[in-house]
Amino acid sequence: MAYSFEDFARDSDVSRETLADYQSWQSLLFKWNRKINLVSPTALDDFWCRHALDSWQVWPHIPAYAKNIIDLGSGAGFPGIAMAIGCKARGLGQVTLVESAGKKTSFLRSVIRELDLPATASSERAEALPSKPHDVITARAFAPLPRLFSYAQPFWGESTIGLFLKGEAAEQELTEASKKWTYNVEKVPSLSDGAGCLLKITELKPR
């Protein structure tokens, strides 16, 4: 049986208002996806597990003090929009969604506006943005870790946490990244993908 909205409501245990925001996000995604290719139709059919749960699982690892979050390669908002929904519910935090594809940025801005989220969407490439430390950096399916670390470094401060969703190649990417970077890592098993994990990265520094 397919993973459903009811399953997501049970597993996330978020408020009714937050669930309504996820439903609105899904509706906007279906509406926009008829005109522009944001995600594949197959992935859209599995929204509640592949996108909602996959993105939401990052939220419990966001520190309570986090005021500024940057999501690299946001695409249709995974996991950046979920982080903004979490910030809205908590009443603290601002999310910057970075997506260089103009049509996807337009979609993100529509979601932000419709859901009244504490977020902005930038159509600049990550490397073109000003260097500024953020409390948290998130990304999903943006780049292999060695390159992802390079993109993330301008936004890294002493207490920054990187929360990166990765698939079955995570261990190999960590090995490659360790050739040029030093870091601490905690691997958290994915709730949505048996072969995947959430990587919690701290103390990132180039060798």
Please provide a written account of the structure.
By secondary structure, this protein is of the alpha/beta class. The protein has one domain: Rossmann fold (3-Layer(aba) Sandwich). It has eight helices and seven strands. It has helices at 5-12, 16-33, 41-45, 47-56, 80-90, 102-115, 145-152, 170-177, and strands at residues 68-72, 94-98, 119-122, 136-140, 161-166, 181-189, 197-206. It has a seven-stranded mixed β-sheet with strand order 3-2-1-4-5-7-6, sandwiched between helices. Helix 7 (145-152) links the parallel strand 4 (136-140) and strand 5 (161-166). Helix 1 packs parallel to helix 4 (47-56), helix 2 (16-33) runs antiparallel to helix 5 and helix 2 (16-33) packs antiparallel against helix 6 (102-115). The chain is globular and about 45 Å long. The termini are far apart. The mean pLDDT is 96.
Short description:
With 207 residues, the chain is of the alpha/beta class.
Radius of gyration: 16 Å
| Helicity range | 25-40%
* CATH A-level architecture: 3-Layer(aba) Sandwich
CATH class assignment? Alpha Beta
Could you say what the CATH topology is called? Answer: Rossmann fold
End-to-end Cα distance: 48 Å
* Domain module tally: 1
By secondary-structure content and strand pairing, the structural class works out as: alpha/beta
**How large is the share of residues in beta strands?**
15-25%
**N-to-C SSE string, H for helix and E for strand:** HHHHEHEHEEHEHEE
Number of helices: 8
Strand order of the largest sheet: 3-2-1-4-5-7-6
**Rough outline:** globular
**Overall pLDDT confidence:** 96
Q: Going by CATH, what is the homologous superfamily?
A: Vaccinia Virus protein VP39
